[in-house]
């Protein structure tokens, strides 16, 4: 992913010093205000699909599936170069933050989805694990992870809540009830280990998946949140594609499209003649 340069006819809204390059990314320790992240394709942007580019991914969201094994998450850093004679130029430089991985079952990894840190701007490795929730609601925990002696990622702080970075609860019917009892349109709610709400996933006006961050957080924490968000999406997308592909594979095994006959498995109720629309 190469650096990009974009010329602007007017100076940016932030302060720039003449004759040198100014980075515009926030310091790692600075608190970022509440805002929203929008994911579309291979990019995560601020606000909506036309907002400032924050992160770039090596894999297109629309083609993400359970059989994919690695996606690289990069932080997009902007800098403004300005001189006395030239127009300001905004440059984008990508830095790898995480390698997001979905190990094969035979690798016997602790986490089926994990984020391996590639930068000091990433607060360590992360693992995603599914937990038990209320009926009809999926729940996940994103935990701090470290490398074990056998080369696998393991939970840093044992199995207790002290190692949990984020908790994620899915809605039972595509919505979470708002404070007034009505539908808030929330698909997933993100909390810290103590239950404080950090962010909510919604579908925005452009019908893109958006993560509305409701509290201040450091850049490191937002980087971890972006990685964890993609892992959550990948897990659910993987379940959907696995179920769909498994169903189609079963249909292909027992249905002869030329004759329109289901051969069945040892005869039985799958035998006989049916049309494909009879599924």
Descriptive terms for the model:
279 residues; mainly beta; 37% strand; disordered N terminus; 12-stranded antiparallel barrel
Task: Write a structural description.
By secondary structure, this protein is mainly β. It contains one helix and 19 strands. The protein has one helix spanning 219-254; strands at residues 4-7, 21-23, 31-32, 35-40, 43-46, 53-57, 70-81, 89-101, 113-117, 125-131, 139-147, 153-155, 164-170, 188-191, 197-203, 209-213, 217-218, 255-256, 261-262. A twelve-stranded antiparallel β-barrel has the order 4-5-6-7-8-9-10-11-13-14-15-16. Residues 1-27 have a biased composition (Polar residues). Residues 1-31 are annotated as: Disordered.
In short:
The protein has 279 residues and is mainly β. The chain has one helix at residues 219-254, and strands at 4-7, 21-23, 31-32, 35-40, 43-46, 53-57, 70-81, 89-101, 113-117, 125-131, 139-147, 153-155, 164-170, 188-191, 197-203, 209-213, 217-218, 255-256, 261-262.
